């Protein structure tokens, strides 16, 4: 069996690793000149770490400093809205790891034979029979995997009438700040904006900012510093410590629910199938789950039956997580003063187990 993978990000490379380990021939087509990713950190949650364990790579990340689960959510003054029992989360679900995205890409890339990697190859069309037209010519395979992101060429080729990715109303900035004395992962909510920070193993701090804005807005670092200048420590210091060129801004999109992830000999995977808001931090984790599941079903059932089994296993779960991610983040982007006041008063009154139970379906995945 031969599988062509369109896209060399986390999902595409993880799929290549999983298939190669099962003796399946792979070819990864990546439009960028090299297989890498820049500029941001990534939280690998317990389910994503179990997917990496299935690839034999989990211990590489565990060898670094394990991150704690998210400590909770504060308001802009620093008062706790939700305070997680981090020891209970670790006991119930397992460890968290924070890693630079480029480091994870490097780990996955090293586990794929160099001859299977084709950078600088732009895919133009994918057909249901497994034919791929690209900048280097035409390739064919028993199975094609579209792991080419939220604006997937694969999805557009096979499902041209499906709705486009939907802008959710807020844009996201990401950056990595120099080492500072930050000991836990925290997200802070305001009115239509929020700020999150996670310590990384080397002492640097991965930060993300989300704010309501029209699609395509270009908001620079100086404006962010002004907007968050009166928020609790260490948020102003984190913004002051980073240079403009280190901040990446990207609009936030969600993919409407697809009726299937499979067409003929082609399957969608990761953001190409189920792009979601980053509110649960599950985008990369779900792509890793997709990769392990797809390799398992193809190996045990063959192309057609394996693709059908993949769709049955992954579509309900990922679409549930897309929905939960949207719902979890919505209150952070309320702008009404009465509504945000009610939110900030009500959240601390809810029992801790309410939040822990809501996380169980996300974190307890196994292949």
UniProtKB/TrEMBL annotation:
Give all residue intervals belonging to the FAD-binding domain: 2-325
Q: Decide whether keyword Oxidoreductase is in the record.
A: yes
Keyword presence, Oxidoreductase = yes
GO molecular-function term, one example from the UniProt record: FAD binding
Q: Which domain of life is it from?
A: Bacteria
Query: PANTHER family recorded for this chain?
Result: MONOOXYGENASE, PUTATIVE (AFU_ORTHOLOGUE AFUA_6G14510)-RELATED
Q: What is this protein called?
A: 2-polyprenyl-6-methoxyphenol hydroxylase-like FAD-dependent oxidoreductase
């Amino acid at each position: 069996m031969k599988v062509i993978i369109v896209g060399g990000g986390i999902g595409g490379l993880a799929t290549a690793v999983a298939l190669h380990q099962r003796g399946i021939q792979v070819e990864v087509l990546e439009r960028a000149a090299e297989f890498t990713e820049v500029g941001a950190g990534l939280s690998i949650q317990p389910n994503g770490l179990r997917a990496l364990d299935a690839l034999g790579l989990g211990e590489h990340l565990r060898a670094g400093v394990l991150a704690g689960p998210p400590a909770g959510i504060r308001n802009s003054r620093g008062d706790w809205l939700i305070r997680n029992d981090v020891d209970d989360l670790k006991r119930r679900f397992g460890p968290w790891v924070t890693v630079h995205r480029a480091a994870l890409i490097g780990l996955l890339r090293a586990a794929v034979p160099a001859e299977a990697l084709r950078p600088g190859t732009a895919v133009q069309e994918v057909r249901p029979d497994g034919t791929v037209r690209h900048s280097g010519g035409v390739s064919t395979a028993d199975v094609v995997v579209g792991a080419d992101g939220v604006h997937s060429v694969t999805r557009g080729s096979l499902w041209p009438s499906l709705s486009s990715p939907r802008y959710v109303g807020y844009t996201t900035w990401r950056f990595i700040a120099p080492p500072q004395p930050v000991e836990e992962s925290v997200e802070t909510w305001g009115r239509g904006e929020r700020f999150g920070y996670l310590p990384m193993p080397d002492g640097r701090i991965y930060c993300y900012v989300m704010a309501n804005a029209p699609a395509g807005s270009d908001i620079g670092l100086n404006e962010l510093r002004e907007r968050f200048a009166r928020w609790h420590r260490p948020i102003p210091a984190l913004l002051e410590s980073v240079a403009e060129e280190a901040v990446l801004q990207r609009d936030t999109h969600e993919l409407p629910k697809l009726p299937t992830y499979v067409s003929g000999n082609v399957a969608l995977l990761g953001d190409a199938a189920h792009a979601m808001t980053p509110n649960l931090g599950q985008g990369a984790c779900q792509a890793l789950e997709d990769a392990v599941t797809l390799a398992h079903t193809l190996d045990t059932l063959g192309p057609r039956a394996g693709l059908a089994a993949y769709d049955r296993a992954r579509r309900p779960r990922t679409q549930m997580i897309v929905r939960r991610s949207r719902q979890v983040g919505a209150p952070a982007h309320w702008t009404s003063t009465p509504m945000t006041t009610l939110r900030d008063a009500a959240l601390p009154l809810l029992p801790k187990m309410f939040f822990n139970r809501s996380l169980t379906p996300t974190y307890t995945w196994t292949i």
